[in-house]
Structures are given as structure tokens and as C-alpha cells.
Design brief:
The protein is mainly β. It has helices spanning about 1-5, 315-325, and strands at about 10-15, 20-25, 30, 45-50, 55-60, 65-70, 75-80, 90-95, 100-105, 110-115, 120-125, 130-135, 140-145, 150-155, 165, 180-185, 195, 200-205, 215-220, 225-230, 235-240, 245-250, 255-260, 265-270, 280-285, 285-290, 300-305, 310, 340-345, 350-355. The protein has a domain at about 1-80: Thrombin, subunit H, CATH 2.40.10. Helix content is about 5%, strand content about 45%. The strands form eight sheets. The protein has a four-stranded antiparallel beta sheet, with no helix packed on it. The chain has a four-stranded antiparallel beta sheet with strand order 4-5-6-7, with no helix packed on it. A four-stranded antiparallel beta sheet has the order 8-9-10-11, with no helix packed on it. A hairpin with a 3-residue loop joins strand 17 and strand 18 (about 200-205). The protein is globular. This is WD repeat-containing protein 74. Keywords: Methylation, Nucleus, Phosphoprotein, Repeat, WD repeat. It is found in: Nucleus, Nucleolus.
Length: about 350
């Protein structure tokens, strides 16, 4: 399996606990798992690189374990109990130089120090949807969720957040705007943070200023946003929603630059390439797609179902399905003289029939 894992460039988690590796150059996909012990409680909730060399993939599962997969050896090398399923699913996973960071839906954030059984626990509030690490300051993380605003935490001083976002002003009906942070991203080379919400908003915050409200807000679509990722080029963000819509937004003007086509189903994960104008996406339709951010064309498409197979190029397999289906036509009968028969009730309670002309 080592030869297969070393050529994979994209890694995906599945609901059955299978870790999938996809080689875009070889146009092949591979499953990495122990088939004898697959179950729904091993569903991968979150994933992260285990080291800067990207030789390890960490997978957080529904059952509270974090498994380490070696991309050099092609096997899982370690399993660690890092959570209680009763506390909720993992919403974030990250590593520092000497620690593992986990966060669950109940708001329990833990720092697991290497070589020690002791942990640092931080209560970041209930209803957490996402915990995200700052890539340039790895001891800092941001959290947010349903009725839980964006907060930034310094894990070296975790007593209280170093930034807490303030809710936007009340709407035109003078009603409070609900809070629902779904995903978070740190904008490179700045202190700014971008979030997407379950109410179609994309917001940019700047913790370096006294203003705790968004410095920019944009909206996309009519459905809850589920994921975001920041491209290598500065100034834009890619967002996806529950109806399989992907869009590129300009973070300076708050405008939609364009949409990425081809998805069918809620977007579950987005990841932009660190240096190339490419974005990978996956969702409930069980397909992995790679789009170009320059001309928004679909570059690669492969099934992320539980069977291994060749990665398909952009083909019209959906059209083939529709072409093979039988066409059904509905025949209607016109009533003679265009008359409808209706039933009316008389004053005596007896039903009588009456012909009504159209």
C-alpha cells in the first residue's frame, strides 16, 4: 500500500471510516482501511496534516478517536482516544509543535501534550460548528457556531478569548440577527478572519482594530453556507452551501466573482491548493471535484463512493443515465362539452349532482 499512498495528492474521509487517497496524475483512487472493522461510528468528522512535511494524516472519528495515517507507509500507525461521543462530534483538529488540539460540538476544546496524559481544557461555548487553527500562529485558534460568535483563543493563555466578535446591528425590522458561524478561515499575511454562516453571509473581521463587528459583509445564494477555503491568490474566498452551489467572492468589494458548476448535493468540504489556482470539493453526491479558479472549469472528477476505481475525466455520465430512462407522457381526457360534474349539498342535507360549464 505504500506505493499507492505515496502517489496520492488528495485525501478524503468517508462516513464508513474509509480513508481515501486520490492520485490526480495517475487518475486512480484507493481505499485505506481495515475492511473487517468498518462501522458508522468510525466516520471521519475532521482531518488535518500531522506534520509540516505532510507525511501524516490525522482523522478524527465519530467515536472520539484520532487515528494517524502514514502516507509513506500507507497504513494507520496510531490510534488515540481523544473524546467522548456524548460530548458531540469533532468540529476541529490541529497540531502544534508538541501538542494535538481537538474541539467538539459541546464546546470542549482540549490540548493534548505529547508524551503526557495531562490535557489543557478550555470551554469555548456550546453549539460549536468549527474550530480552525491560525496557520501562521499555530498556538491560536478560532471557534464559532450556532448562537456562538467568532472567538479567537491564545492556547498559551487560554483563560479568556483574545477576541470576541460583536453581533451585527439589528435588521430593518429592529429584530436581532441570529448567529450561526459554519466555517472560519485566517486570511494570510494579515490579522483578518473570514467566516461563512448558515444565513448566507460571508463576513470579514479585523481583530487588530477596536471594531468587533465585521469590516465587510457579503451574501451568496439562498441556502445555508457550509464551508469555505482561501485561495493562494489574495483577496478572494471560495464558499459552498447546502444545495451544492460553489462561488468565488471578492473580499475587498463583497461581490461574487463567479460560480463553479457541476455539484449536486450539499458541500461538505473545500480545500484550495496552497500555491496553484485550484480548489477541491466534496459533498453528499459522493464525488470529488477539482475546479480551476482562473476559468472556473472542472479539471477532474471522481467518485468518492466506497469502491476503488479509476478517476473519471469530465464526462457526461449523468446525461447517459437520463438518456436510458423511459419517457413517460401523461394523457388527459377532455370531458364532453367541457363539462365538469360537481357535488353540492342541498338545504335538506341531501347531496345532489350538478353540471358546471367551464
Amino acid at each position: 500500500m505504500a506505493a499507492k499512498s505515496q502517489i496520492c495528492s488528495i485525501w478524503l474521509g468517508s462516513e464508513t471510516g474509509i480513508l481515501k487517497g486520490v492520485s490526480l496524475t495517475k487518475k486512480q483512487a484507493f481505499n485505506f482501511c481495515e475492511m473487517s472493522c468498518l462501522s458508522r461510528d468510525q466516520e471521519g468528522c475532521v482531518m488535518a496534516w500531522g506534520d509540516p512535511q505532510e507525511s501524516e494524516v490525522l482523522v478524527g472519528s465519530v467515536n472520539g478517536t484520532v487515528k494517524t495515517f502514514s502516507t509513506d507507509k500507507g497504513i494507520f500507525t496510531a490510534t488515540r482516544e481523544c473524546g467522548d461521543p456524548s460530548q458531540g462530534r469533532f468540529t476541529g483538529l490541529a497540531v502544534t509543535d508538541s501538542s494535538l488540539i481537538t474541539c467538539v460540538e459541546s464546546g470542549l476544546l482540549k490540548v493534548w501534550k505529547e508524551g503526557s496524559t495531562e490535557t489543557v481544557e478550555v470551554n469555548v461555548g456550546n453549539g460549536i460548528c468549527r474550530m480552525q487553527q491560525n496557520p501562521s500562529q499555530r498556538h491560536r485558534v478560532a471557534t464559532g457556531g450556532k448562537e456562538n460568535p467568532l472567538r479567537v483563543w491564545d492556547l498559551e493563555r487560554p483563560d479568556k478569548p483574545i477576541f470576541t466578535a460583536k453581533n451585527v446591528a439589528q435588521d430593518w425590522l429592529d429584530m436581532r440577527v441570529p448567529v450561526w458561524v459554519r466555517d472560519i478561515g485566517f486570511i494570510p499575511d494579515s490579522d483578518k478572519i473570514v467566516t461563512c454562516t448558515g444565513h448566507q453571509q460571508v463576513r470579514v473581521y479585523d481583530p487588530s482594530t477596536p471594531q468587533r463587528r465585521p469590516v465587510l459583509e457579503a451574501r451568496f445564494g439562498e441556502y445555508p453556507l457550509t464551508a469555505l477555503s482561501l485561495p493562494a491568490s489574495r483577496g478572494t474566498v471560495v464558499v459552498g452551501n447546502t444545495h451544492g452551489e460553489l462561488a468565488i467572492l471578492d473580499l475587498r468589494k463583497g461581490l461574487v466573482c463567479g460560480c463553479l458548476k457541476g455539484l449536486a448535493g450539499a458541500v461538505r468540504g473545500l480545500q484550495c491548493h496552497p500555491s496553484l489556482p485550484l480548489v477541491a470539493s466534496c459533498g453528499l453526491d459522493r464525488f470529488l471535484r477539482v475546479h480551476s479558479l482562473e476559468d472556473r472549469s472542472l479539471q477532474h472528477k471522481s467518485s468518492s463512493a466506497d469502491d476503488s476505481g479509476d478517476v473519471e475525466e469530465v464526462k457526461a455520465e449523468e446525461d447517459e443515465v437520463w438518456d436510458t430512462m423511459e419517457t413517460v407522457t401523461e394523457k388527459t381526457k377532455k370531458r364532453a362539452a367541457q363539462k365538469d360534474e360537481a357535488t353540492v349539498t342541498g338545504v335538506d342535507g341531501k347531496k345532489k349532482r350538478k353540471l358546471v360549464k367551464k
